[in-house]
Amino acid sequence: MGTLRFAFYGRISTDEYQDAASSRAWQLDSARRVVAGRGRVVGQYFDVGYSRRLPWTARPQAAALLAIATSTDRPFDAVVVGEYERAFHGDQLTHIAAALASCGVQLWLPETNGPIDLDSPTHQALIMLLGHQSNREILRARIRTTMAMTAQAREQSRHLGGRPPYGYRLVDAGPHPNAAHARWGRRLHRLDPDPITAPHVRWIFAQRLAGCSTAAIARALTDHGVPCPSSHDPARNKHRHGHAWALRTVAEILANPRYTGRQVWNRHRTDHHETVPGNKRTGQPQRHLPNPKEQWVISRRAAHPALVSEQDFVAVQAITATPRPDSDETRTYLLTGLLRCGLCGRLLDSHWVYRSPGYRCRHGHTTAHGPTLDRPKNIYIRQDAAITYAAAQLGIPLDDPQQVAHQLHATRSTIICTPSGMILQDIEEARILPAQT
Fold first, then answer.
1. C-alpha to C-alpha distance for 197 and 70, rounded to whole angstroms
2. What's the pTM value of the predicted model, to 2 decimals?
3. Burial of 371 (0-12, 13-18, 19+ CB in 10 A)
4. Residues near 302 by beta carbon (within 8 Å), at least 6 away in sequence
5. Ramachandran category for residue 160: left, alpha or beta (phi over 0 → left; psi -120 to 50 → alpha)
6. Tens digit of each residue's pLDDT (9 = 90 or more) over 232-261
7. Domain 4-137 maps to which CATH number in 3.20.20.140, 3.90.980.10, 3.40.50.1390, 3.40.190.10?
8. Is residue 276 predicted with pLDDT exceeding 80?
9. Which whole-number Å values give the CA distances from 177 to 123, 181, 432, in the listed order?
10. What is the average per-residue pLDDT within 55-73?
11. pLDDT by residue (tens digit) across 363-375?
């Protein structure tokens, strides 16, 4: 019986889709088989919910293991892992093995049935092979999953999860086609018209075909007290206030091809926006970004009852086409993000008027909502007037408007716009310069 003392390290990515206890047990069992007869495991370090892409220093248990390894009174002589893919990604193994070796600690792998030797050409080749195999495993699983979901949506018209679009509800569609899943009681679902909201969707398409603007439709829905999607289903829309219909909401409904009865998948992708790659805990709120239409997967046959015919849907898309300028002139706004409303604090919107650039603030008002009596009048600022004012305040020649805009950006200055005039605010020094008369 060996006398080496081993610290075991293991990891799983998520605890939502994996059993942490089972995963820990089989990885530990694999590690114990490696060290059998040569030592015993005296400590365990197991990370749950951390991606393999994260460095060891960003995984709590792995970081703790590395910290203890540097101490002179560490309770172990070597580190053993249960599976390479669970512990390492890319060239992490080389760095970790070198760091442990500098502390006099060996790193053992099941694939080597013993300690890693970074000076051995055989082990160097094996490390390279394991790194490529790990990356290949991730890529292969991603491709297989994507291709399977593509086939299920296109050929089987299967609902692949997610919330039903406004106007539909989920209903039972029979047992799962996978026999094992069916024995576990899993069921398929499909979309079915919601008796409460489906009539509103049909009305929206009818109004658009009749020539109503998207904003007018949104106003009419709000004025008639029709609950918007976030108000109708607040449990799934906790991040929205649900007070009224928005123009964008109506536009999204009019552009959703699932209302034709076809199943559509891959319209959007999720951007986790992780500040540390692989660590979802460092991510900002997820953003659902649209994919190009050529990447959409549309079922070959109808998957659920349609709320609008395909002919009417195509006709609506022609109506909602993005308007283009009536000329080929280039519209350049030099002061975008540099003008702020002195009444409501919002940045002014770029606004092309009388064939020249300008800026306006409607104080949060949109055409999707009727104006309120207490709302201030809109503020309109011509770009040439703002450039002239800023050049005078900064002491810059007026013959180069781009230089004026560049100086405003460089000094982090903002032009505060009010009904009575403009004020140049220096953000850096938090001071307000008086306007020239």
1. 63
2. 0.59
3. exposed
4. 157, 261, 262
5. alpha
6. 877 766 666 667 888 889 999 999 999 999
7. 3.40.50.1390
8. no
9. 45, 8, 69
10. 92
11. 877 766 666 677 7
